[in-house]
Structures are given as C-alpha cells and as structure tokens.
C-alpha cells in the first residue's frame, strides 16, 4: 500500500484519479519494452505509486477492498497503455482479492507481503501448475537433524510465468506426488534456494511480461506455506470468475488502444485529390462503427457480470468463462479489422497497431483453454434441458 488518501476521498477514488497519467506513461514506453522484451520496471513502479497494485487488499487488512467492477475498470485502462503491465497487475490484484475472500495465507506471511508492498511493488504470480512437470514430494524442510520440520520439496519446471524476473512471491497450484495425490496452493518466495529463472521466453505478444521458465531443484516449502490441500482438483468458482473477467478486461484495453489509434489515423490521413480525411467517408465511418460496436458489447458484458458478481449473483459466476472467450474473440476481430482497414500503415513497426494485434492474439493463452470452457458450457446447457 502506498500513500494515505484524504479523509474526504475514498481510497479507490484516490487511486483512480492518477490513472490517466499512468496510462500515458505506459503507452510511451510500451513500444520499447515490446521490441526488446524487457521488463517494464518503471511502469510497474508507476502503477504501484498510485496504489493500484494493492487496490484489492481487504479492508480487514487496512486496504481499500476494491470489488471486481472496479478491478476490471482499472485493468482495461492499464491495458490501453500497456497490456503486459496490465497482465502483471492483474495477477497481483487477483491474489490480494482472493486473500480478502478466503484468508488462505497464514496471517504473519500475508502481513509480510503487505509490508513489502509498502516499500515498493510486490508482485505476486498466482499460477495453476497442475499441468506442468512440477513435482511436489513430501520431505523434511530445514536443516537435517531432529529440528527438521515437515514440508515439501519441489522439482521440475513452470512454463510461461508472467513477470518471473521481478516477482516477490509465487502462489502456485500444484498436484502432489503422493500415492493419493492432492492439490493445493504452495506459497514460494521468488528468491528461494533452488529456484532459477531460465530466460527462454520470446513471445509473439505481451513481450514485456517476460513469460520465462522457472526451474525448481529441490525447492523447500514448509508445511505452513501450503494451503487448501485436498484430493479434488476444483478451484473456487469465484476465484475463476474473477480471473476470467480480469483477463478479459486487459484485452478490452488492447481493443481500446487500437480503436484510439485508428480514430487518429482516419482523422489525419487525407488521400490525394479528395481534400477530406478518410474519416469523412461513409465507408470508413461504418467500418469504425462496426469496431466500436464490438468493443461496446465486450465492455458492457464484462462490466455487467462484474457488478453482478460483486452483488453475490451466483448465476453470473457461471457465465464468466464464455464471456472471457467472447471478449477475446471480439478484440482479436476488432484489431484485425483495424489492420485490414489501414493496410501497410497498420502493420508498420513504427505504429502501435501491429503490437496491439500481437497482444490481442497472445492474451487468450493466459486464460482457461477454450475447449474446456465450451465443454463446460455445453454440459450445463444439456443439464438444463
């Protein structure tokens, strides 16, 4: 947490007031970080300084306790500046929100995270590694001898983890290597002995998120830092719903940025002999209107479901998977249409539109697999008859 808001200004409103300046800063540096695939330290620091990385810290911990509706609003704006920074912020915001709902972290450990958050950006990656070759075996933790405590040893690798070179903590869902496997969340310090970053990530889009590989060699995790161990492999529906909509909001930000660039292009570009910009021609107005309509639909879908979830509507929780899929498809189609409308100008590396297309194409891989989402929705429809 950062600066203390005034008595007359709610904490969330105080943070949102500085959002436009941060979005401009992110947009100014996005091309550089994308080109070189370098981590956006300055951008993450700017997001932290106005209190956005701790926006979802629960009120019981002294935080603002922002709801999902406010989170998706913030992430859509951050995504308009730099979708990579928005993705990193989303992971941290989601984890603070889950802690506020469930209290999964041991209180002293979470207080340590909050202390780190006051000193600077303390990024948390909440990752599902149940499909990765990452093995958790029971074993003594600590020094050999009678004082050794029960715990776990982790070996293997974790692929595509956003922000690995600047994380404070990882909260990783892992399936244990026991005769009867269980699934739980392992809380791991990023500088733990035996944990190594392998900088192999070289993505098409969202390149500043530096989604490298983490290699675990007998990484020790004490038993008290493992939460929710159980034999069923079912994540909380509310946790899944928050993630679905948060990631959809990041993609909406990408679509908004592409829309903004296209509006500027159509307003400035004047073909020879016409005397009018492209934006004055009905054909281009209609094409822009089609793109605008798709983004409005995506924005209203996410905002509507987020508000319903904040109000406790369980039916809305069940709809976020298809909503995320629809939003991602709408944004990809919108940005692709902008590229087709502008031709070589839109594909120029000197313009942001080609980066926004790559970000739009890369975003869905951080969500649930489309096949699983569609199968779930199909089964639910059949059950309803």
Automatic annotation (TrEMBL):
Pfam families recorded: Acyl-CoA_dh_2, Acyl-CoA_dh_N
Q: Which residues form the Acyl-CoA dehydrogenase/oxidase N-terminal domain?
A: 26-90
Q: Does the keyword Cell membrane apply?
A: no
Domain of life, per lineage = Bacteria
Which Gene3D superfamilies does the record cross-reference, listed alphabetically? Acyl-CoA dehydrogenase/oxidase, N-terminal domain, Butyryl-CoA Dehydrogenase, subunit A, domain 2, Butyryl-CoA Dehydrogenase, subunit A, domain 3
**PANTHER family (alphabetical):** ACYL-COA DEHYDROGENASE, ACYL-COA DEHYDROGENASE YDBM-RELATED
**Record protein name field:** Acyl-CoA dehydrogenase
Organism listed in the record: Kitasatospora acidiphila
